[in-house]
From TrEMBL, chain A:
Domain ABC transporter residues, every copy: 7-243, 260-502
Keywords recorded for this protein, A-Z: ATP-binding, Cell membrane, Membrane, Nucleotide-binding, Repeat, Sugar transport, Translocase, Transport
Domain of life per record: Bacteria
Gene3D superfamilies: P-loop containing nucleotide triphosphate hydrolases
InterPro entries the record matches: AAA+_ATPase, ABC_carbohydrate_import_ATPase, ABC_transporter-like_ATP-bd, ABC_transporter-like_CS, P-loop_NTPase
Gene Ontology molecular function: any one: ATP binding
Gene source species: Paramylibacter ulvae
Protein name (record): Sugar ABC transporter ATP-binding protein
Automatic annotation (TrEMBL), chain B:
UniProt subcellular location: Cell membrane
Pfam families: BPD_transp_2
Keywords of this entry: Cell inner membrane, Cell membrane, Membrane, Transmembrane, Transmembrane helix, Transport
Protein name as catalogued: Ribose ABC transporter permease
Coiled-coil ranges (or none): none
Species, as recorded: Paramylibacter ulvae
Membrane topology recorded in Swiss-Prot or TrEMBL: Multi-pass membrane protein
InterPro entries (UniProt xref): ABC_transp_permease
Record PANTHER family: ABC TRANSPORTER PERMEASE PROTEIN YPHD-RELATED, ABC TRANSPORTER PERMEASE PROTEIN YPHD-RELATED-RELATED
Amino acid sequence: MSHSIGLSIRNGTKVYPGTVALDKADFDLYMGAVNVLVGENGAGKSTMMKVIAGVEQLTSGEISMEGDIIQLRNTDDAAKRGIGIVFQELNLFPNMTVAENIFIAREKTRGGIDIDTEAQERETRALMEQLEQDIDPNDLVGDLRVGQQQIVEIAKSLAQNARILILDEPTSALSAAEVEILFRVIADLKRKGVGIVYISHRLEELIQIGDYITVLRDGVITGSRSMDGVDVDWIVRNMIGDSGKDFAKEIEHPFGGEIFHAENVSLGNSAGGLTVDNVSLSLRAGEILGVYGLMGAGRSEFLECVIGRHPHATGNMFIDGEPLVEKSVSARIGRGLALIPEDRKNDGLVQILSIRENMTLSSLHKFTRGFDMNLRLEKETVADFVKSMTVKIASPEHAVSSLSGGNQQKVVISKALMTNPKVLLMDEPSRGIDIGAKAEVFRVMRKLAADGLGIIFVTSDLEEVLSLSDRILVMSNGRITGDFTHDTATNTGLVEASAIGHTPLNNNKELA
Amino acid sequence: MATQTTSSSLAARSNVLLVLLKARTFIALIIVFAYFAFFAPNFLSTANMVIMSKHVALNAFLAIGMTFVIVSGGIDLSVGSIVGLCGMVTGYLLLNGIDVGLGWSIQFNTFEICLLVILVGVGIGAINGFLITKLNVAPFIATLGTLYVARGAAMLSSDGRTFPNLNGNPEYGSHTFRWIGSGEILWVPVSIWMLIAVGLLAAYIAKRTPLGRHIYAVGGNERAAGLSGIKVNRTKYFVYIFSGFCAALVGIIISSQLVAAHPATGNTFELNAIAAAVLGGTSMSGGRGKIGGTIIGAFVIGVLSDGLVMMGVSSFWQTVIKGLVIIAAVVIDQAQQKVQARVALQAQSAIGK
């Protein structure tokens, strides 16, 4: 296979105050191919892409396209040269239609004033046909699924005749079916000669789709080659230096008695169906129960029912055999439940408060006598947790928003652990954090289980669920569609169970 | 090595800048104060200090309540009207007591009157809280509604007339009412003592009680606060009730100072309270603000307007200057946020290596 080089960076260096984000990077972008970019968080992937997309400028070094050295001063410059970027966090307006979003700031007009709605709709329809998507140009973006929104973002880039398309973690919020659609779209674009840069944390996915791979570590490119013969080991070695950081190892320990039990938990949705459909499960002390399933399978909603976020949920729950009659989140936390939400930014942390204030948010009563809070005790406790969780922070008084994803997650976990829970509910605990932090989070989970905590954790990562869980439940369409032990679980078994969908279920196992 | 030294000196400079930015309201107060002490005749006289501090106190009360509301992510537009209504209730109770029919009426002493009036303020605050939490009305609209209702009620209570001569009656034990507005303890006006008490209480709540922490968390991220086990609705109730309480105190103090209650009293006071809170570094998007900052903010506004009056600046210009000061405060606040984030990120990236 030979592909022409569409864009190159030579000696690219980007310095931010106090840190070198990109250090003398040489990068070639091949056209008509998928150029995969991988590295831990903060390795410089996003910085490099921002440079290519004109969001940031290089401190030194040069960018060339087809032999000419070019200057990309802003995103407009980049767009004019056919460079489009789809950011990890979608930049769409949920209150506007698909067509309006695609032509935002470049509206098709008659005489520069009157928006030509028909022309916009026509072009949008053509784009959607090209992408093989059944999305109406007049649908509100807010009504679309996340995967479809991603497609709209891509269409937005294509509408500007993008020759180079940068996708920053496009699959992090997609279901398997949506990922498949996305991959088809990418293959199609490849055939049309579009150069694609693909950033992701999911290594298997990268190997599956990539043609060329570039690995970054601490701003330096540590590996760059064609994808032939690349395996996960090679990527990990280049990403973290040595293959020392493995996922948590098994520590064998005996389980205790049943600590949590749910019976027929159901949650209705606005469409009249059930988001969580008669879920029953049981958890023993010291057990890690993995709940595998795709996005929208009702996994997160089930955890939310347990913690008490949905007052309309039905069903019975028991902690240590005692019925859980409390309705409010605070009372349930008091009973020994704790949730680590999937969406760290919106559900887990108060970004503008300090690290200390975030950590103690659920357990302020511990430091309070009457009305008075013991601030010194609070500080000491926070310092203890920072140490035991190995959170890397300069000062607990800094805003939590200054931390990287992995460290933020450790703050959220500390917050949950500070309440001394008996049952820990973890929703995608490894989402958006780098391999190093991931391994540490898993190590902590193992240790907590060994200490006798019951853990229910939800994930859509097969490898994670297989290596961590003592027992695995699979959810699909709001129901439990599979129940595996550590020994019986296989990749294919889990995937098949997670695909059991709209047909009436006959293999739905009743769990006592 | 070279890059390291430049980055550390850069960090040191940002730190100095940050301290200056954080103390900006205080620096502004000193400058304003020094300027008038120099140029305005009699500015430093004891009499003027007493009058000025009384003016400032009224706004400071409202601003303290407003700070909690804004920190929790809301806004309370009704405080000015609550001041007016509470003033009228005070006047009515002093003059008429409560008519129980059959020619009988219950009369109250000063303490009982204050208690009843505070109950009115707290009640309106509770209604605000109810509208916002249970009926899910946006705080701006809910309190705009109560603003009109309370103002209308104040007008209705006397048909728009003033309740004059609120001297009280020794027989009922209400003759001490005037003392609230004009009395002094240790040469300091009673209202200032009250401000000190309320200010310390509020600062204590903000700093050292779970309730205070909850207010900041709810304003910073309501969803995360709820999932962390914070009773969001209860927290919101508290801030509006506390704001109503502060407004009731102002209503009592003003009617005592003037020995009369007029239904239009307190008109647009809410705007001054918001201005003081913002000047003191409270973020309108919630989650950030300090009671101490707000009180200093109230002093800046108060000293500025009284000082300008003493220098004979026209009231039209005063309004313009007040507006400019508020805008400048917010612009500087933005700069502070940027520097603060940069300092934190620098410190973080330094240990990341």
